[in-house]
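We treat protein structure as text, and this decision shapes the records that our systems exchange. Because each token names a local backbone shape, the row as a whole describes the fold. An entry from our holdings is shown next, in its original layout:
>
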Amino acid sequence: MSYWDPLPSVRAAANGPLPAPDGGTWLPAPEYRGRWWNAWPDRWEQRDWRNVPGPFYGAGTDTCWTGRLIAPAHVLYDDEWGAEFVYRQPRDAAQALALVGAVAQDPMAGYACDGDDHWTPDLVREWWRERGRVREWAVALDRTWSVSGREDEREAAGGAREYVAYIDGGLAEYLRGYLFWLSEGRPANPGEPLPLLLRSA
């Protein structure tokens, strides 16, 4: 599957109703619309190391644990402060809308959607080489939170398991498509060879 660019869907959603934690929709006040994809310039350097490469990332988000109420297939919480980060980038318009809804709930405006301006093929490959660190963290999180007395931590443990499965499964294919996107500025055509994540010596 070739890379899918979520940014047109994100921009289209900037002024419309967004998913809400209760399963309904809500419309942000006019002064807040568009904040979730107009990144603050300093967010990239503050990004969480567990963010999977792609346009969306969390950097200094709040600790309200609202992200998984809207986008559980994309948002996970860290185990120190409860800040949010993106463990799976959206692959269609519905997923993009869900993630934008989660992003818009953050009162700290700690998410950004300018990752394409910062990720390079070398940085993506470096992240992939270090993926064992992320995987080890997610395994430990699942081990701890799956037996927690808190329902929200047990629920988030499921996200940690999904992240591990994604690292072991479809993430490599996604990142190869993203490498092509970063290098060529377009998605790969069917049958077009994708860059390697690990270059041979």
About this structure: Residues 157 and 201 are 38 Å apart (CA to CA). The radius of gyration is 16 Å.
